[in-house]
């Protein structure tokens, strides 16, 4: 049985923890709003990019001149997984969900005799995947110092991926991230980056375009850029998802701390009363004895 | 003077939508030379090089943006400019461009082949031109 003093200390420490989780929740809520705004602001670009890409891919068609980034190498022996997670923990199952999806995916590939290479974006995913696939991780990108995610950060990763592809280091590239559905729902997603899928062609694509310089050259320029855009979108969704997950995790923590404080306070009061009763009994029985 | 027809113009960068509205003419620094887009332009898709985009609105006012590479998708009914990076001309300084040149120089060192290197050198030269033309010291 803990003493009164122990209980008092316990209550004080849980209260301090509750204050911290409450503050973290508030911070996450503010950051979430900003992250959502950023994700929303980036949407028009990726949408238009998709439409343009579909148009032009249709024009180039299944031509031999189509760039290799789009047609792929014709093999699927070596897979590159780009796993995007958060830099920080304390956000519920957010990081482990993405890591689990990537892990299951790579286990399946390894079981089928494929080679797997992994690039980790974000520290948490690296920490989790390192346990099982330490030898497969070829690179990691650290975004901890980045205050505000810019297109430059994504472009850097995109260039890395393309440079590896040009060197023939892999055949298929898949991007892992968490899609932001709502504050309480983030869905871990795997998206194939290379070979790039052109997506659905837009409706008004029957217009006959003039291309400057020419369609193949534009396409060759467009696809690498599209890869960076996809990564950028994934990173933005991730930030929003992380903040959402953190918010609900911290909300839960605050509530749990509240419950714990109630329980401890009840316990404390009971003991205090028991002690008073005991002292009274001692005095009374002492007086009777005289 | 006959009022020129207006069409819809959008300037988007990966970070945000900078401009979306009805305009009468847009001057685009296309890779094959500057071109002015007006309403009912033939469908064209072109890459753009670093330079200045001049937008003329229906009321005759003009606005200028500095763009750093990207694409333009031109249709008779509208024009979309997908810029890799775009900044309003009032918000850019010589230092900004100098910084970009610095970054590109750094890439030059790491360029894997001559073709790539030539591309970066061209990019640096274009940035130099932009710096010289829009921002007299």
TrEMBL record, chain A:
Localization in the cell: Cell membrane; Membrane; Thylakoid
Source superkingdom: Bacteria
Its membrane topology: Peripheral membrane protein
Any one cellular-component term (Gene Ontology): plasma membrane
Assigned keywords, A-Z: ATP synthesis, Cell inner membrane, Cell membrane, CF(1), Hydrogen ion transport, Ion transport, Membrane, Transport
Family, as annotated: Belongs to the ATPase gamma chain family.
HAMAP family listed in its UniProt record: ATP_synth_gamma_bact (MF_00815)
Name assigned to this protein: ATP synthase gamma chain
